What does this fold into?
Amino acid sequence: MARAISTPRKVTLTAVAWIIGLLIFFPILWTILTSFKPEAQAIADPPMFLSFDWTLENYAVVQERSDYLRYLMNSVFLSIGSTVLGLLIAVPAAWSMAFVPARRTKDVLMWMLSTKMMPPVGVLVPIYLIFRDTGLLDSRVGLTVVLMLINLPIIIWMLYTYFREIPGEILEAARMDGAGLKEEILYVLTPMAVPGIASTILLNIILAWNEAFWTLNLTAANAAPLTAFIASYSSPEGLFYAKLSAASIMAIAPILIMGWFSQKQLVRGLTFGAVK
Amino acid sequence: MGQITLSQVRKSFGEVHVIPGVDLTIEDGEFVVFVGPSGCGKSTLLRLIAGLEDTTSGIIAIDGKDATALPPAKRGLAMVFQSYALYPHMSVRKNIAFPLKMAGMSESEQATRVERAAKVLNLTSYLDRRPGQLSGGQRQRVAIGRAIVREPAAFLFDEPLSNLDAALRVGMRQEITELHQSLKTTMVYVTHDQVEAMTMADKIVVLNAGRIEQVGSPLELYRAPVNQFVAGFIGSPKMNMISGAEAAKYAAATIGIRPEHILVSKTEGTWKGTVGVSEHLGSDTFLHIHDTGIEDTITVRASGEMAVHSGDTVWLTPDLEKLHKFDVNGLRIASPMLQKAGAS
It folds into this structure.
């Protein structure tokens, strides 16, 4: 929409946007800076902004003390595994809700969303006991299933919204053309929903990557992902801010880089259907 | 082969009975048009034949075989949708080949058939484009191409021309008719446009509130409509309906006379009236006549040369041979003369 905006107004708006942006980014920036400080300067008062002795020592120590790669691989396994598993369930579920809705479909959708309103700690004990009794504690498979279930409502909701945008007539045309349910989903629905599915995948990977509650409570050593890796540098080990920062940066870097490169896709996906 | 038989087909959505029970036979090779006002159930009936909706009860047979429970893919029918329903992520070539791919046809056979269909429909130079890069008429042709490649038992068209502009619509109307003449395959065509119905159909099925009002050739419906609904629906402008004392003179509850069957004169005639709005089409002039004392407005089709102005007094004379009589229930009162006209 063309709308005339005066120059002073434009300057003010830009400045405000930058300030808000920097404010939001500041904690991450500060963590990055701290990770390059010697431990003593990390807790210096007043804080040192750029004029400290830059060092890579923290990264070296963190890498030496814990097996970063193992945590990383666990994170990758959990986030991708839970996403793939989630999609296998969510695509057919969202298809049925979008294209053959029943009388209670809306209620089912609301019910699924309502499970996200409950604090996870409310079901910690039963899930912990189930995991203990089935030998799933500290296993990647068990945790993958839990992370998938945690994010399933969101995946289904997102896909449902995207699928609703696809004209039903196209799927009917596929049916008339001889496509069975499998071909219809594989050749017509999925390719048409690619932007939506892609952003769902991205969001779910990010959510699973950052999930800490379940990963901390259900893992010890074998299946522990990067969230557990960061946690291992927090207070029980002493207040080593610089090392904690280095560990945090190492943990969030992969997902931050992925998010950065896919931000266009992510934003398009998240606002899909909002504007037509 | 493509004979379709509907026996007591019903469709209800909950408490709403969209199709209360239809019996109809569509013969092999026929061009049948379902026509009726919006919401009369014509699209639903087509979708029942296609298998996109399940019947509540009744039997749909295709070539004598019960197809009621068959999924759309197994009925051997092809459908062209109002929105074209092309696959936006596939090229024209892949769109047309899709039903062949689903049928498990070999790549070379697919290519041959796609080329042939594209040639028939003048799409050869667009085969590698995406639907988004085509005009409305071209998209419509791709949709038809996708339907003809698989050589179906019958084609189903669901208001295929309503998204096209008027000029293109006339052209496509002709193309579909020509296609029918060359393929000689059964076609079932849904439209709310009675001009399309009249110009294309071998047989018209007039629907109202899910019921079949009349089945017949375009001229049968025009000449001998079985009731007031069909009389009013077929023909443009609509037939004039006159009830009351004037109708009683002809021993009917209502009489109907088409605008083209009324003679206009400035000097003498049966009914006297005043000219209201006149619509000059060049070839014809449609006059809306008021103050006749028999009905609010009577529409008359006069010659394009006739010079009349708003407010002029004119005399109208109905052609009695073409007068339609209806009883209190709106049903046609048969007259020997008109029956002869209807049969001819």
